Amino acid sequence: MPKAPYPLRPQLMKRSWLETHPRWKIPLGFVILLFLIGVVGTAVVSVAMASIHHSEVYKQAIARASQNTEVRSQIGEPIAVGWFISGELHVNGSAGNANLSIPISGSKGKGTIRLVAFKSGGVWRFSWLQVEVAGAANSINLLLLSPPQ
User: Fold this and answer.
1) What is the pLDDT of residues 29-56, one digit of tens each?
2) Domain that holds residue 35
3) Do 41 and 63 lie in a common domain?
4) Which of 87, 88, 96, 132 has the most CB atoms at less than 10 Å from its CB?
5) H/E element holding 50?
6) In a shared domain, residues 34 and 96
7) Helix runs in 68-138, H state only
């Protein structure tokens, strides 16, 4: 006699955990939504920070601060740049403007590069470029040709 393709006595279907605990649907959905918002927010901030880190005005400001003897003596060497930059950067082809605060640190202390710059004709021109050293009363002007004696 041939065997039946299905059991003669049907078994009860097992219910999932979510089906046995229906009150957890809304809190779990809320947690998942918060997680997704966090992932998207982190991605947006990462892309914005990466674009600033690759900008020409950022690189010029870091280079000027690293080459300045007064900055190196007060902050120490090597000068490390912080990852989270505040401010704004707008570039549209050969024109643009920047207003940034870049955290830096060294073996002797911490500081912040503050800059205001405008781009015209593809060239960045700084109207404000200073390093504020934590704990120091005066800031270091990086636009001076030679440091004050």
Assistant:
1) 999 999 999 999 999 999 988 889 899 9
2) 22-49
3) no
4) 96
5) helix 25-53
6) no
7) 69-75
